[in-house]
Specification:
The structure is a single chain. With about 400 residues, the chain is mainly beta. It folds into three domains: about 90 residues, Sandwich (Immunoglobulin-like), CATH 2.60.40.10; about 90 residues, Immunoglobulin-like, CATH 2.60.40.10; about 140 residues, no CATH class. About 5% of the residues lie in helices and about 45% in strands. The strands form five sheets. Strands 20-22-21-24-23 form a five-stranded mixed β-barrel. Strands 1-3-6-5 form a four-stranded antiparallel sheet, with no helix packed on it. Strand 7 and strand 8 form a beta hairpin. The relative contact order is 0.09.
Length: about 400
Amino acid sequence: MYIFQHYSSMKRFFFLLAAFAAAAALTGCNGNIEPAPDPVINISDSTFTALPEGGELTIAYTIQNPVEGGNLTADPADDWMGEAKVSDEAVVFNVEPNEGEQARETTVTLTYVFGDDRNITAEVIVSQDFVQEEPDVPGEDPVIEIVTEEMTIPFAGGECRILYQVKDPVSDGKMSASSDAGWLTGFSCDDNNGVADFTAEANGTAETRSATVVLTYTYGGSKTVTAELDVTQEAPESEYDFEYQLDYYLAEFYGLDYSTTNHNWLFTFMDMPPEEGWFSNDAVTYSIDLYSTAPDNIENPLPPAGEYNLTLEFDPPVMTFSYYLSQLIIPDGPTSSFEDGTIIISYEGENMLLDGTFTDKYGYTHHITFNGPMQITNNSSWDPGTDGYSFYFVKS
């Protein structure tokens, strides 16, 4: 009896358990199923700042509750953001530089498309300042340092070079060189190597000459700094002990007053103007007592062109100059008569050209030249239209 009852109780227990399971199954089939949540775009920030000079801008994101096959796109409102490159973790733009004069701002829309053309969006703001020029910093202006300390150019001229360097150079800086001297030409500068090249013409004068070369560094549009170097060119080597270009003179015509047959001129050539109608005590002077045929124009009695030679005769012949009244005076140098010499006179337009070579009594050699207009005073009794005694002096 006991066993039967136990068996009967177990049977009821399993029956009830099966009934409950069936009821639970029925309840599960007929109840409401909870839908999956929609995706969400999560962005690290709502605003981003692009550099004024442009470059890459990264917008990091994540998709919460992603859907298989979902796809994200990014669309900027302005073209200056450039093309978007989208990965699973970020959107990268190659932003253009802002070369305007104002800051700018735009909106980027992120769109996640999923399911049956469903989508969700999120927006971010991107701002960008404009590119500003760096302000000048006091005390940091470029400075030119000329490395070449001095320059002496041979009398024959040729190619010349000045070495320099620029302290605190700027990106748009450029060097140039120039000179007011016409005998220095062809200036060029190489900023990479710090050299300024130019050409010097041969020294056609009888003296040493000097000039100034100016280096100019231009930057920041119109700003400049300069540095100067004085250069000297040697005088040509001379075969003479004394050589002068004489630009001043005193000139007189005496006609036949001092010769029975030939007309006479007295020239005094100087390297500085006369003082009170006579040559200065500080002047280099060469006096020439000249004899030739009658002049063509008594109003300005110029001597005939040709070669004149030194003579010792008391009544000098034609085309000579006299030993007795011809002499030279050189301050701090010789004062002497001539032992030998030749003078050549020619004319170009209104200019008289004189070239003279001499040997003085000490054995020194001399070379003088004159080139300029000539006005001669007529002090000759041979011409009754003149009277008195006077000098003319003219700078050639």
